[in-house]
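hey all, quick one before standup. I had two proteins in the batch that finished overnight and I want to keep them in one place so we stop losing track of which output belongs to which input. First protein below, input sequence then structure tokens straight from the run.
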Amino acid sequence: MSLRSLFVDFNSYFASVEQHEDPSLRGRPVGVAPVAAETTSLIAASYEAKAFGVGTGTMVREARRRCPGIQIRVARPERYVVWHHRLMEAIDHAIPVGRVGSIDEVACELVGRQRRREVAEEIAQQVKNEVALAAPGGAIRCSIGIAPNDFLAKTASDMKKPDGLTVIELADLPHALHGLELRDLCGIGPSMEARLHEAGITTVAQLTAADKHRLRHAWGGIEGERMWGLLRGAWLPTAPTERGSIGHSHVLGPELRTPVGARAVLKKLLVKAAMRMRREEMLSGAMAVRIRFIGHDQRWERDLAFDPTDDSRELLRLLNGVLDSGNRRHPLPGPANATPLSVSVTLMRLVPRTQSSGSLFAPTQDTRRVDALVDRINNKFGYNKLYFGSMQLALEHDAAPMRIPFNRVPDTDSENEAGHDPLWLQSLNRFKAIAEGEHRRRERGGKGN
């Protein structure tokens, strides 16, 4: 009875929700984009679209070229969050929901007799039946992996899609993994793959054969030993972590790829982060600002430390200082005349309000009351009903809408934007990395022609 984890992965989740809510899309190729623009990249594609070589990261206009009949839908994070909760409830009818990894993934722990293979497979089938009851019509499906730990169960869930069921037992290891590529394993991205190659590990077979010391060296720390254990089926629950930062990022739409547009979006992102921070009764003592430009691999970045605060106006003043610290002849720092592609701002060095005396120059009580009043109005009547004038351009173009923060399910009552949800953000962040790479690739290609 080595099986301890049942992992549920919803297939092409965003596109599947669109197909479920609009039956005319079922059986047809569908792509989901963050904004209505031909130059943006898809964040999801249905399996009908994938058959034409369209997938996450494909630019909209390229998707239309490869698949002339594709239907493009603008992402609706609020609906994806609603369905996330419905589907978690459906799973809970079959087995208690354990750790929610993202908006379309969840790991459940098998206990007692559930660890028997035949019982675990019965539970997996019950999960599929409950999903079918919650979303009749067959548009929303899931693949399920069963294994000795969450890492291997997630890996198993990816082996057979869509609507698959794969079981990996201890006796199947490590050979069951040898047909995979390194990047198929959770936690191995492009940079980690490059480090493994430098360590002489180019296949999963070589990875599973490596000893603890070699993996520790490749990972540069204890995570290498952790990977060694996970590959062998060790049950290593994820240790709880404390929040160390609050931030937001956004890939700019074509209409906002100007210095003025980028600054407006940065200010909106900062105010969103400050509002979240106040809701969690935290203060920030540092800020990180990042800007990427089309055709430039190197991003512009600045970090700033300051006395702990949660005041939006003080944080905006600090942001303006960072953006104006470069050449004043250019309204935006970074390469001269470069076109901004994406921006991000992160508040760091978070401390509970009760554990910090703040600064001698901290805002007055009246200032805090204004922040509290603005937050209450926006919570009650909708996000950005009251806002700073410097955010106007970003609001006109609906930039940086609701997102999903990491490691939590969105609180739609208090946030008023599904985009604040960590789970949606998690998925969007994966898209942003792909989209930025695609833009840079196309820019370099254009210069070479």
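OK second protein, same deal, sequence then tokens:
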Amino acid sequence: MAKVKTKYICQQCGYESAKWWGICPECNSGGSMVEEAYTQKETARAKKQSSHLQKSVDLKSVEGTEADRFTTHISEFDRVLGGGIVRGSLVLIGGDPGIGKSTLLLQLAHHISKEKKVLYISGEESAQQIKLRASRLFSGDMNMLILAETNLDTIEGEILAVMPDVVVIDSVQTVSSPELTSLPGSVSQVREATGRLMNIAKANNISCFLVGHVTKEGAIAGPRVLEHLVDTVLYFEGERFNTYRMIRAVKNRFGSTNELGVFEMTDKGLIEVSNPSKILLSEHSVGAPGTAIVCTMEGTRPMLVEIQALVAPTTFAVPRRTATGIDFNRLNMLLAVLERRAGLRIQSQDVYVNLTGGIKIYEPSLDLGIACAVASSFSNREIKNNVAFFGEIGLTGEIRSVSFGEKRINEALKLGFEEVIVPYSTAKDLKNINSIKITGVKDVKMALAEAFK
């Protein structure tokens, strides 16, 4: 019988040590070292796997072909993936509990199963529960194969026996290998499961989707090596009490990492939102002080969003600053610029800024809209109707240019806006657009003067 030994593994970064540490020496996280048992048999198997080495080849002799893709029949999901699913790719999807990860992947599996063979593996639900959810979401033929299993060996055997085009595993933290003595969801189990599934996907050209749990900080649970192993990492975002959901790529070996897909949660599952700007501005309060429309970019998609600001006298010794959907530190910087460069005395005021729709955007082009919305609320003056903003604000109060100016302006024009207030350098380069008024501004004072004319 193989001798059992113990080691301590950090559940945040995967650092291994022969003794326990209160604070991980690698990532400095406290209380994350967990004891795990292992045998000499596991070590020998790992060495055996690493002994099969491939020979090097000349780069010139390698055939350079485009990635072989196929559509998911969900255009918003295809956009985020970079144009469709790449054969043999490994995709990790993370999100808060109840946000809609399983619903999205079940719909995805249903659409793909009309043309491809799909195997849906669940470690959290039984086959009967999956059938009930599928019957609620869609009617008609259900051609996908389902398996309720958590044993990694059984899952591996079933995949090799069925040889599907697409595999969905919900979730990777529930899958465990009986060869390891650690608990499911531990660093060793997650690393082992992901590594073996990756080998199967690459060797047999099978596209694999993994659902990952997230921590309270919003990061995918488990070691960082999990995100390094996969080809694509997607985050499913949104407020639980808001109907809109956003899916964005934070890593993508086959496309852009800036793309955003927008969905609406209904009783029939997730529905694509092809024109997010129109939806996000549907309840815009025209003529209300403290609101501004901003042209932002998410990847290649231009979007118009509404910034709301409320400035009120504080009753505290230190004024409150609250930011929802935008970067809090950037809001503090913009308030300091308004105080110093525009002469707004808001040091004794509470400031609340909200990005409507429950979405989160951290692009610097929001700066100009935020500054105008805060100034509008502070002075109780409404901004001109049918005007949109975009531009980055520097510490000296200058308005700096941002990319994709023409795309942003065309999106505003499409939704009926009559004027856009933009950086002066951007306005000079876009003189050929005559169907909308383009006003270039050089600094914050000039921008506020134009916004309140």
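Flagging for whoever picks this up: Residues 187-204 form the longest helix (18 residues). The chain has three domains: 4-41, 67-274, 278-451.
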